[in-house]
Amino acid sequence: MKRTPASIAARFFALSLTALSFGTAALAAEPFDDKFRQLDELLPTANAYRTASGAPGHQYWQQRADYTIRATLDEANRTLTGSEQVTYHNNSPDTLTYLWIQLDQNLFKPDSDTRRIQTAPSREAWTKPQGDGADGAKFEGLRNVLAGRDFDGGFKLSNIRTAGGAPLKYVVNGTMMRIDLPAPLKSGDKFSFAIDWNYKINDAKVLGGRSGYEYFEDDKNVLFEIAQWFPRMAAYYDVAGWQNKQFLGSGEFTLEFGDYDVKLTVPADHVVASTGELQNPGDVLTAAQRDRLEKARTSKTPVIIVTQADAEAAEKSVSKATKTWHFKAKNVRDFAFASSRKFIWDAQGYRKDGTNVLAMSYYPKEGNPLWEKYSTAAIIHTIEQYNKYSLDYPYPTAISVNGPVGGMEYPMISFNGPRPTKDKKTGELTYSKRTKYGLISVIIHEVGHNYFPMIVNSDERQWTWMDEGLNSFVEYLAAQAWEKDFPIGRGDPRDITAYMRSTNQVPIMTNSESVLQFGNNAYAKPATALNILRETILGRELFDYAFKEYARRWKFKRPTPADFFRTMEDASGTDLDWFWRGWFYTTDAVDVSLDNISEFNLNTKDPEVEKAWARARHAEEPVSVTDQRNEGMVRKVDQQPALKDFYNEHDDFTVTNADRNKYRETMEGLEPWQKDLLKQGKYLYLVDFSNKGGLVSPLILEITLKSGKKTIERVPAEVWRYSPTKITKLLVTDEPITALTQDPYWETADVDTSNNSWPRKAAPSRLELFKMERKNPDLMKDFNTPLKGDEAVKADDKSANANGGLNGAAAKQQAETQNLKPEVDKAPARPATDLKK
Length: 837
Ligand SMILES: [Zn+2]
Fold this sequence. Notes:
This is Aminopeptidase N. Pfam families: Peptidase_M1. One of its GO terms (biological process) is peptide catabolic process. With 837 residues, the protein is α+β, with helices and mostly antiparallel strands. Helices cover 28% and strands 24% of the residues. Strand 8 and strand 9 form a beta hairpin. Helix 8 crosses helix 11 (465-482), helix 11 (465-482) packs across helix 13 (518-538) and helix 13 (518-538) crosses helix 25 (808-817). The longest helix has 21 residues, at 518-538. It binds zinc ion.
């Protein structure tokens, strides 16, 4: 039906909020910025080892290294002494003339590259008085630097020999060692060799690091978390050859799978938590403990193996005797352990589908009451959730240890730092919300690392994001499944916008040692990108299948970024090159601006309708100031009505017979479908969007109609393919649009939502006023102030922030553990800020 003019608010209105830019007409045509250009020129050419579908190729190969290790922990001297035999299997098609070995402990040498390349924070940050702890020189930072210069760390190597005992030629280069083979190692052959070594264990609370010891002043005991503790085979693979980049602290480990047979000799009163399965429980555990472990396998709640009372009793003396714990682990890329007489130990089994695991937690009494309540529960939750999204956990144990290390992962075992706070005076134990959720989330994260990169064995020294990003993404999913509103800080698009606006960024596709803003770049941004891919671009069904396929294909193999990108496309049937290009290869941000909106209705060509419509528009125009002031004026034609004629009766909007005849002729010339179209009565809107952030994004349009009805229209990102910075989109509705919002649920990580709505919305904010303060030093008053007693001074003492010199390991620790949302009172609603450019 025809619409009456009165029902139409306006046929045309324009809202122009963006300033026109003048004078920028380019002299030469700029090259077209093709956001959808295929990635082929950036990705390696597919071959027989890695297919174009992202799967391992039919000639895929990887090396293997099996280890037999005997080691002794000297608690009094804080040293570890060991001997290892490595059997290296050359499964590559190549003949090798030398082997590269990783010597991670050399990071702690006083003259290590890591120490020598350390830079101070900016002069301003260094000298700024300590405010909220973010900047300024710290006691811990300076202690770290000074203690590091004096610490005689690093491997002391000896007796490097063939299995037959013949000495081997070798050269140490920083954290790497090359062993020259006595004869070329042919494809398919293996070579066994042995190394003796010892090293001083670092005080993790002073020197930092991913492992080390913690000394407990109160009971004079030591807790050891031991990792990167033996010379390990560097990886050799089809894409990188030998992965022998120096370990500077951030790029973790690129390792080969193998079987381990490890005997650890420790003080007889220690409890050892380790990668692998205990082979000699009869030698090291009591009958009661063995019995409890058996019960734990089928228990629905954690069973305490070593009670807090047992651990506290053990703390009171130091055994001079030793015991040897024997562990074996199959098909792992590394091996770590923890040892202390302070350990409380609980365990609970979990069995489902391909998983049959004993989840275990080891913690000193300082960890309780938090640890007995949450640690083992969090391990099992992690396995349940990660199995759902990736692969069935294949190992027999999954361990969480509380010690000095904030958060670090190894096969089957992880180190997790959060503990309750003990009031120094009353001894009362309390924990903050941050500590509670920090503990649960760091355990999910570190246990989750078993999947990425312990099983899906990406090259960590090259790409931090491939394990940290993917792991942070699944961690985000697992946190949602723990409880509603879990304060996980990485994954939700709204939490990444501040980073995306920041200026000191590098693309995600940056080598691990060169990443700026480590936690945001390698953890939060890829996790958020994958969440957007899942929720907004592919949808859960396509995404989950593809992600799982990636885990299935690369389980116990070594994928590269191209294998991930290609698998996600191949299994979802979606060209995502634009997405990888924008999110992983650039530092662009999403900032879509809704610039203009214009409403159109079809001209019916009927003069009765159209002239009335025009008249109504005319009537809507504001009365001019002159006309307003002339109101009531006596006019000539009013005084002498005889002066009026036809034109005083009819205006420009009068419909004439000529109009009617013309309309009839026009209509006779139209096809029936053309006439129908004129009667549709649809509302047509032209909406201009500009891409201010550079990153192409789908449009999610919330359309509010005059009746109050709201609809969501989802427009794929390909809408930008011909015009990546500015597009005009046609919207068709049955009634007038009264409001339009782009990205109403904040699902695209749009960094500036102030330009997302029509009509524009004022951003609410609070202006806080402060008193003027004048501080006049008053020496006389200060002089006369009475001296405080010791107790009062202690009460004023505030513990300093515990993150000193941020080298690679410290940056990693910060990234692993600071993964929660800021608490609400410290996090104002996202301000509508201007983008950096
Ligand atoms: Zn991590």
